[in-house]
Amino acid sequence: MNKRISRIGLIAALALLVLPAAFANGTKESAAQKPQSAQNVAPVQQQVKTPKYVFFFIGDGLAMPQISAAEAYANALSSKDVAVKRLVFSQFPVTGLSTTYDAGSLITDSASAGTAFASGHKTLNGVINMDPSKTISYKTIAEYAKEAGRKVGVVSSVSIDHATPASMYAKNPSRGNMYEIALQLPKSGFDYFGGGGFAQPTGKNKDQPNIVDVIKAQGYTVVNSKADFDKLKPGVGKVVAYNAVLQDSAAMPYEVDRKSDDLSLADYTRKGIELLSDGQKGFFLFVEGGKIDWACHANDAVSAIKDTLAFDAAIQEAVKFADQHPDETLIIVAGDHETGGMSIGFAGTQYSTFFEKIMNQKMSYVAFNETVIKPYKAATPKDKAQLSDLAPAIKDAFGIDVNNLTQIQKEQVERAFKRTMGNEVERSIKEEEYLLYGGYEPLTVKLTQIMNQMAGIGWTSYSHTGVPVPVFAKGSQQELFAGYYDNTDIFKKLAQVMNLKVEL
Question: What fold does the segment set 53-341+464-497 form as a domain?
C-alpha cells in the first residue's frame, strides 16, 4: 500500500512539473495567434529582424488549378513525359492556404477580397475598403507602410483603377466608380504606380477633367511610352507609368497577344524595384497579375496559362532582388479567389490530358474578337454568313480544323456561330445563352472551350468560385504564412512582419 502511495505521489510530482510548462506553451501559442484574430492593436514586438523589403503578389483568379495548368503546359512545351515544370513561386519554402468568403457570400469578388487582405476586414462584393454599411472606411496595409516611412508601389496588368490595385489606396462603396477611385490615387502619396491605364479617364459620362492631368497637377511624373519608361531613374519622384499599348478596359494586353518589344508585367516590377530601392526604410511593392482572372472568366485556358507564366516571371524579378538581400526581403504570393471552376480533367478525356493540343493558340479571345469576329460581322450580312468563311482564321488563331471536329463539336460550333451572327438574344432564352456562353462572343468562347476539352481542361463557371486559395512565402519571417487561415489574416501577418501598429 505504501509503495502504491509512493508511486501516486511520484506521478503527481511529475504532473506538477509538466503542467506549468504545458500551460506556458499554450499561453505562448495563444499569444502568437492573437495578432491573427481578436487583438484590437497589432502587432506585438518581434525578436526577429523586420524585413526592409516586402513584396506582395496577387494572382487574380489564381488557385491550384491555374497553377497546375501552367506547370503542365510549361512541361509539355519541352517534354512528352507526364510531369510538371514547377513555377518559381510554387517552389517557395512555405505554403499556406487562405479562405476567401466575404461578409455576404461564400464566393467573393475582387473588391471584397482586396479589402480583406488590404485592410483586414470583411465586406460585401463590390465594396472597396469600407464596411458592409458603406459608411466606415478602412486604412490599408500600404497606407500603414507609407506612414511608417517605406516607399510604396502598386503594379497591375489591368487598369490601375480596377478593384484589386485600388484596394491598396482607395475607399469606395462601389468598384464601378473608377473615376472617383482614380482621384484617390495621387492623394495616397504612393511613390510608384505601373501597368494598366485608366478605365474611366474622364468619368462615366466623359465629362470630367482627364485623370492624367489631375495626377500630373498633384506632382506625379506620368509616362506612357517605352522610351520614357526606360529613362525613369531613382530620384525622379512620384511616378505613374502606364502601358503604351492598352487592350480591353485599359488593361495591358494578354501575354499571348503581347508583342516582343512591348513592356511586360516583369518590366513594371523590375522598374518598381529600381525606383523604390533608394528609400532608407525600405519599400512595400504590391503587384497583381489581373488578367489571369479575366481569361478564366472567358474560359480561355491558354490566355490564363500564359498570363500565369508572365506573373511568375514578375515574381522572378523579386527573387533576383531577394538573392541580393536575403536577410532583408520577404516575398508573398497569393490568389484572391479562383475563377471559372477550372479543372485538370474533362469527362471526354477521362484520365488523359493532351496539353500539346492547346499549344497552337496564337491569340486571346479578345484579340480574335477584335481582329476576326468584329470585322467579319461588320462586313457580312447575317443571312450571307457561313462558318466556312472563318475556318482559315479559326485554324490560324486556335489550331482548330473545323472540318475535323466531331459531329457534336461541329453542331456546337455552328450553333455558336449563328448566335454570334444573330440578333439580340430573346428574353426566353437569355438564361440558356448565359449558361452556354457566359455573355461572351458565342463562337469564340465555344472554340476555346472545345479546344480546352480536347486538352483535358474543364470549366464549371464564368464567374468566381468559393474554394480556398494558396499562399506562398519566401524570406524573412516566411513561417508566419504557413497553415490554413482567413484572407483577413494576410493583412495582420503583413502588419506583424513590417512591425506596423495597426488598428482593427
Answer: Alkaline Phosphatase, subunit A (3.40.720)
